[in-house]
């Protein structure tokens, strides 16, 4: 019985590790504040993910960034300026989306 529980726990962990958010196809540029001075602010973007420990930390930050980028795509932005980039401790990406012509 304990072996079955261990196998199920491992399978559950693998499912969490393989769950990835994909980025909607886009032409977004990741730029600095100085690059968007003449652009229109489209709105804030935010992405987070609960996978942020151990070997899966990279997956968590990737998923969080993808969520924020998808929000920028939804806002029809052309550029994103990050104020916080995901780390192995936070897995949060926070920024502002801009429309530049």
Report on the structure:
Helices cover 35% and strands 25% of the residues. The protein is α+β, with helices and mostly antiparallel strands and 101 residues long. The protein has one domain: 2-Layer Sandwich (Translation Initiation Factor IF3). The longest helix is centred in the middle third of the chain and has 18 residues. The relative contact order is 0.24.
Class from helix and strand fractions: alpha+beta
Portion in strands: 15-25%
Radius of gyration: 17 Å
Low-confidence runs (pLDDT<50, min 5 residues)? 7-18
- Determine and state the CATH class: Alpha Beta
Please identify which CATH superfamily we are dealing with. Answer: Hypothetical protein apc22750. Chain B
Number of domains: 1
| Intertermini distance | 62 Å
What are the SSEs and their pairings?
Layout: H1 2-18, E1 29-30, E2 40-48, H2 57-74, E3 79-84, E4 92-99
Gist?
This protein is α+β, with helices and mostly antiparallel strands and 101 residues long.
Keywords:
101 residues, alpha+beta, Translation Initiation Factor IF3, four-stranded mixed β-sheet, 4 strands, 35% helix, elongated
